[in-house]
Amino acid sequence: MTDRLATEGGDEDGPPSGAVLGAPCWVSLAAHDLAATRAFYEAVLGWEFRPGRLGDGFAVAMSDGRPVAGIGAMAPTLGVATAWLPYFGVGDPDETASRVRERGGTVGVGPIPFPLGRAALLADNSGAAFGIWAGDLVRNWSGWHPEGQVGLRLVTRNAFDAAMFYGEVLGWTRPGGCDVRYENEEVVLVCGGLAMARITSGAVEAAPDPDVRPHWEVRFTVDDVAECTRAVLKQDGTVTGEWEDEAGHWAGVRDAQGAQFTVFGPGAGTLAG
Asked: In CATH terms, are 4-143 and 144-265 the same topology?
């Protein structure tokens, strides 16, 4: 099996030899009202949209001419919660789904066929939802760029246990694959020289927190977090938290349909603490 995934042709500044197997390859939102969701993100993040190649009901969000994320209309009857999810590129989704089950995770949907590949929705052994994809990739996805607008962090009860689960399921340590490092009290997944995802559960000496609800946090970079949170509230979304650290200014928000995500931008030095 090759350690690379084929990329969708067209953009020459995308990954020249394809994405590494097991690496994040996309983020997508399952929405119950596609038109309303597009309007929310147009107003809050300034995204533009083009039709997706997966058929009607899918759209690709664009920022500064680069693809950022996908939004798909999901029928409420499917029982799929509206949520932002990361997708990881795999070679054989059936084999990956089997490994998930063997290691205590669950398979919620799929693998199911789409025009360009096959996908499945899964949950790890702590309940955090994620997706896998085998097929054509979005070549110029902004997550592949150092200045990319997308970031991923798994918030879980035990970062090392989670890293073992994903490493075994997605083959992170195969030759030519990703590197797994420990930096600043986080497990960091490095693919192609870029930090593609992080796993955190707090300080290494701290006991696992039983109250943590494991989930993948999808982060989008913005120019002005304060302006963004005002737009969230104006569009009937919710701001769940706001803070600053040495990296910059952060806010946790929910869109008007309840999907949670994080925005990040330069720090203003105006928040207490």
From this structure: yes
As given in the structure block, the two tokens for residue 125 are 């052994």
Domain boundaries, the chain: 4-143, 144-265
Per-residue burial over 226-257, b if 16 or more Cβ lie within 10 Å, else e, is eebbebbeebebeeeeeebeeeebbbbbbbbb
Provide the CATH number for the domain formed by 144-265 in this structure.
3.10.180.10
| pLDDT attached to residue 58 | 85
Query: What's the pTM value of the predicted model, to 2 decimals?
Result: 0.86
CATH topology of domain 4-143: 2,3-Dihydroxybiphenyl 1,2-Dioxygenase; domain 1 (3.10.180)
Contact between 133 and 90 under an 8 Å Cβ cutoff? The reply is yes
Q: Amino acid letter at 222?
A: V
Q: Could you give the 3-state DSSP secondary structure of residue 179?
A: strand
Query: How does pLDDT run across 157-180, given as a tens digit for each residue?
Result: 999 999 999 999 999 888 777 889
DSSP3 helix / strand / coil % (the chain, rounded to 5): 20, 40, 40
CA–CA separation, 255 vs 261, rounded Å? 8
Peptide linkage before 111 cis (omega within 30 of 0): yes
What 8-state DSSP symbol labels residue 13?
T
